Amino acid sequence: MNMREFLAGLEARDVKIWKEGDKLRVRAPEGALTEVDREHLRVHRDALLRFFDAPNEGPQTVIAARDANEPVTYPLSSSQRRLWLLEQLAPGPRYHIHLRIAWNGDLDIALAQRALDELGSRY
Question: Cα-flanking dihedrals φ and ψ of residue 79, to 5°?
């Protein structure tokens, strides 16, 4: 998240931030500022003051803090959504990726089987 996005998010909650001399001033409705917001303001105070001095310069980066106990989630890709839908419509292993391998030389069938079994057990 860059500085403009951070400030826009606060502005959307009616949080006012401005520079007064060398101090950063904040006025917010009760409950509008979260602990994460307060931490951002403390940690990035100097960057915010510089931002207010030159607001038209390039984006300033704000590193988002997150709770270490909160799991990180990412949106599913279109392929993952498609597989999820197929699983909902017909549960079970119905989706297979077919693969053909050209092999030169001798193949140890038992070793290949163990390797494929191990791979299958992981997924």
Answer: -65, -40
Instruction: Compute the C-alpha angle 13/15/19, nearest 5°.
Output: 155
pLDDT in tens, 15-52: 988 888 888 899 999 988 988 889 889 888 888 888 88
pTM: 0.42
Q: Which domains does the chain have, with CATH numbers?
A: 3-53 (1.10.10), 78-122 (no CATH)
Nearest to 24 by CA among 3, 58, 109: 3
Name, in order, each residue with C-beta under 8 angstroms of 94's C-beta and a sequence gap of 6 or more.
86, 87
Pair 10, 25: CB distance under 8 Å: no
Find tokens 């997924």 and name the residue.
123
Provide the angle, in degrees to the nearest 10, between the axes of the packed helices 45-53 and 35-43: 70
- At a CB cut-off of 8 Å and minimum separation 6, what does 95 contact? 83, 86, 87
